[in-house]
Amino acid sequence: MFNAQPKFITSATKLEECPPASLPEVCFAGRSNVGKSSLINALLNKKNIARTSNVPGKTQQMNYYKIGNEFFMVDLPGYGYAKVPKKERERWGKSIRNYLLDRESLSLILHVVDVRHEPSQLDEDFFYWMAMNEKPFSVVLSKSDKISRNKVNQSKARVRRILKEMNIEIPILPYSSDSREGVPEIKDLISEFVNH
Ligand code: GTP
Ligand code: MG
User: Fold this and answer.
1) Is 101 inside a domain boundary?
2) Which one of 21, 54, 151, 172 counts the least CB within 10 Å of its CB?
3) What are phi and psi of 76, to 5 degrees?
4) Does residue 144 contact residue 181 with C-beta atoms inside 8 Å?
5) Which ligand is nearest to the CA of 32?
6) What's 29's domain CATH number?
7) Is residue 100 over pLDDT 80?
8) How high is the pLDDT of residue 85?
9) Which ligand sits closest to the CA of 77?
10) Cβ atoms of 34 and 59 closer than 8 Å
11) For residue 38, which atom of ligand 1 is closest to its CA?
């Protein structure tokens, strides 16, 4: 599935601009700079098909990648980026919420959280809101190369606790674009949801 040629299709700013919902799709959500675009590159084994940056706020639109003729990957702009003007942020938040709620072909939402940081209020709100709306989502704990194994496990346990309080039981996958930890597991998860 992941060996098929990936191709950039389009950038959308709202649901109406997304391509026809002809294939299942997986999207990547989370705060700015957590590594959503890097994760797409890691899964596709490409250096730079999705543009990344060490400056938060790189991805500004919903970028569509078509993988062979099988599914779409959608790189979403990050939230919580203070430098984007408030009005713009609100407009964005609204478009992304619409997309997440109403895109019929959305098969899986991968919510990326930096493993070093406690989930923010926005992350927790996101978990809750996904669960309330019965959306299929999983949590990816990115940049696992940056801290010790012990700390990674602690972080995973902390996220599991937060989710459990909301009665949510979903996969929580540590991942690193550097060591490639988690890449096979995330691929398996995507295959499962796309082919279900
Ligand atoms: P926005 O588009 O701004 O929302 O950010 P993003 O979530 O797409 O993050 P991006 O993939 O651009 O990565 C942000 C920075 O983190 C870049 O400098 C990446 O090289 C770095 N990065 C991403 N994933 C990892 C990882 O697993 N390990 C390490 N060490 N660095 C990573
Ligand atoms: Mg990005």
Assistant:
1) yes
2) 54
3) -95, 150
4) yes
5) 1
6) 3.40.50.300
7) yes
8) 76
9) 1
10) no
11) 11
